[in-house]
């Protein structure tokens, strides 16, 4: 199994998700680029970000790989839902494109494999955002370069609480079924200890977002602790 050198460079490393939601004060490409650069200085091996403007701004400000995605909508398949979205992420500067790899219906009626095939032919590195072990199996068989537990929590990251932890059972199962394949832990990693536990459970790399780059959630966790 040949693993691309860029993906090999992420083994055992931290990937930081730098995103702001619609209507939030930090939702600005320059702000996201500054946040990404700060994370790079702290040791992030790659940045995951969404939206063409953010991808371009972060790519211009940082030197680490950028995992890009384009969210459109709020329900169903909305993470880079079509081939058009994926190609736009590449044009904006993404080194790896993250795609919803579930078997749910897509806006253009295509399957995950239909979307992936031309990207592979074009030499694009792809990351499969998965919900279940069946999603991961299909993604590996289809030829994704990385698979991730991104969608296993079923809700937006900002809707998770400090008490919610990463999906280590799914991570372990995937790592055991596909030894040596890049299986990334993403979602609900809120502490350094949880990040370490994910690596110990077999994660190729760990994505942390909210706990590093979403001050509104961080503030709410402290507030809740004081008011408990």
Automatic annotation (TrEMBL):
PANTHER family reported for this sequence: N-ACETYLMANNOSAMINE-6-PHOSPHATE 2-EPIMERASE-RELATED
Is Isomerase among this UniProt entry's keywords? yes
- Recorded superkingdom: Bacteria
The terms under GO molecular function for this entry are: N-acylglucosamine-6-phosphate 2-epimerase activity
Checking InterPro entries in the record gives: Aldolase_TIM, NanE, RibuloseP-bd_barrel
Question: Its function?
Answer: Converts N-acetylmannosamine-6-phosphate (ManNAc-6-P) to N-acetylglucosamine-6-phosphate (GlcNAc-6-P).
| Gene symbol of the encoding locus | nanE
- Tell me the protein family, please: Belongs to the NanE family.
Catalytic activity from the UniProt record: an N-acyl-D-glucosamine 6-phosphate = an N-acyl-D-mannosamine 6-phosphate
Q: Does the keyword Membrane apply?
A: no
Cite the annotated pathway. Amino-sugar metabolism; N-acetylneuraminate degradation; D-fructose 6-phosphate from N-acetylneuraminate: step 3/5
Enumerate the CDD domains for this protein. Answer: NanE
User: What protein does this entry describe?
Assistant: Putative N-acetylmannosamine-6-phosphate 2-epimerase
UniProt keywords (A-Z) are: Carbohydrate metabolism, Isomerase
Protein EC: 5.1.3.9
NCBIfam families, alphabetized: PRK01130.1
